[in-house]
Amino acid sequence: MASARAMIERRRSSRVPTRIPIKVYSREGDGDLMHIPAEVLAVSRYGARLRLPFLLDLGSHIEILHGHSHEIREFRVISAKDAGVEGLFELGVEILHPARNFWGVQFPDEAYGA
User: Which of 27, 74, 79, 108 has its CA 20 to 30 Å from the CA of residue 58?
Assistant: First the structure.
């Protein structure tokens, strides 16, 4: 197993633990649009770890509505963790078109005041 240091060095951006309410939009198999309230557990410049009540296939494209800024961005599901005790799944997602800081948080590797 890779050391924690090696894993951090491979990351493109640091992760910041946070709690952000979101709404996840996804197309069901029949084409109907599904929108479900969910929560962000951690963010980076390039993605996030989500907690939500359903599981999506790896590679699925979803849209996330930020609960505070009300911005919407498109993401791709890159990892999934089985439901825990609470019956909620954790998904890793990657933002498809990063522009500016979608999450609105200060990352540790950014210069303060910049």
Answer: 108
pTM of the complete model: 0.81
Eight-class DSSP state of 13: S
**Cα three-residue angle 30-97-62, rounded to 5 degrees:** 20
| Cα gap 75→97, rounded to integer Å | 8
* Domain range annotation of the chain: 44-99
Letter for the amino acid at 113?
A: G
Task: For 20-84, give the secondary structure using H, E and C.
Answer: EEEEEEEECCCCCEEEEEEEEEEEECCEEEEEECCCCCCCCEEEEEECCCCCEEEEEEEEEECCC
- What pLDDT was estimated at residue 110? 63
Give me the count of residues in the chain. 114
